[in-house]
């Protein structure tokens, strides 16, 4: 089994980055505190599951925002045209390609397309659909600069469908929703190969393992 893994060019962490980082820090701390460290101690390892990249699926990770940043709906739609083409749609919009977005606002769906000149060709992070939406709409128009900490934005996994976006906005608790084209596996690997970090909430991976709690006592 070890020989089989040794033949792999690389392993990519698709989910569980924080757990991996925490395990690495624990291992480093315990190594420093153990003068008889050999590398065989259990703290040097953590549980992982590996999938071939062509047997995994990345679903869309959509956004909902509580308000329009002080703009009326009409003002907001008008400002979108600086970076996007905007077309009303009679049907829910599930983007069919990169650079395309669905927007649900006041009971109406719109199809947005980023202007091609705004898509960088040499930056694997900035050209991601989540980055294009963040940098050209969510931050400049809605004033959300850090989606990790701003409670005006929330994230909806694509497995819940476009109806969940409609439900959130129609409830009155959220003002606008955006559906995104899923990040491709190739785009994710390009970011990792460049030594960069994926933006927050940019991938929803399937399959997911059944939840459970397993404890391994190190002492």
Give an overview of the whole structure.
There is one protein chain. The chain has 219 residues and is of the alpha+beta class. The relative contact order is 0.20. It is 26% helix and 18% strand. The two termini are 27 Å apart. The strands form two sheets. Strands 3-5-4-7-2-6 form a six-stranded antiparallel β-sheet, sandwiched between helices. It folds into two domains: 2-50; 57-204, Conserved hypothetical protein from pyrococcus furiosus pfu- 392566-001, domain 2 (2-Layer Sandwich), CATH 3.30.1760.10. The chain has helices at 2-6, 17-32, 73-80, 129-138, 162-170, 185-193, and strands spanning 57-59, 61-65, 84-89, 100-105, 108-114, 153-157, 176-180, 204-206.
Secondary structure: elements and pairs:
Layout: H1 2-6, H2 17-32, E1 57-59, E2 61-65, H3 73-80, E3 84-89, E4 100-105, E5 108-114, H4 129-138, E6 153-157, H5 162-170, E7 176-180, H6 185-193, E8 204-206
Morphology: elongated
CATH class of the largest domain: Alpha Beta
CATH topology (level 3) name of the largest domain: Conserved hypothetical protein from pyrococcus furiosus pfu- 392566-001, domain 2
Give me the count of strands. 8
Estimate the strand proportion: 15-25%
What's the number of helices?
6
Key phrases:
219 residues; alpha+beta; Conserved hypothetical protein from pyrococcus furiosus pfu- 392566-001, domain 2; 2 domains; six-stranded antiparallel beta sheet
């Amino acid at each position: 089994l070890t020989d089989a893994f040794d033949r792999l060019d690389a392993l990519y962490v698709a989910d569980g980055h924080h757990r991996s980082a925490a395990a690495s820090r624990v291992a480093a701390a315990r190594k420093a505190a153990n003068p008889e460290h050999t590398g065989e101690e259990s703290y040097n390892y953590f549980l992982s599951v590996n999938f071939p990249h062509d047997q995994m699926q990345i679903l869309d990770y959509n956004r909902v925002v509580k308000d329009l940043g002080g703009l009326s709906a009409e003002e907001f739609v008008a400002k979108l045209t600086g970076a996007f083409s905007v077309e009303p749609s009679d049907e829910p919009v599930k983007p069919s390609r990169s650079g395309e977005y669905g927007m649900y606002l006041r009971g109406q769906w719109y199809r947005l397309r980023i202007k091609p000149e705004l898509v960088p060709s040499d930056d694997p992070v900035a050209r991601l659909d989540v980055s294009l939406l963040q940098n050209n709409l969510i931050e400049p128009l809605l004033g959300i600069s850090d989606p990790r900490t701003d409670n005006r934005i929330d994230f909806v996994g694509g497995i819940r469908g476009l109806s969940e976006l409609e439900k959130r906005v129609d409830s009155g608790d959220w003002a606008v929703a955006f559906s995104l084209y899923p990040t491709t596996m190739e785009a994710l690997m390009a970011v990792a190969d460049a030594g960069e970090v994926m933006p927050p909430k940019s991938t929803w991976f399937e399959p997911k393992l059944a939840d459970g709690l397993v404890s391994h006592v190190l002492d």
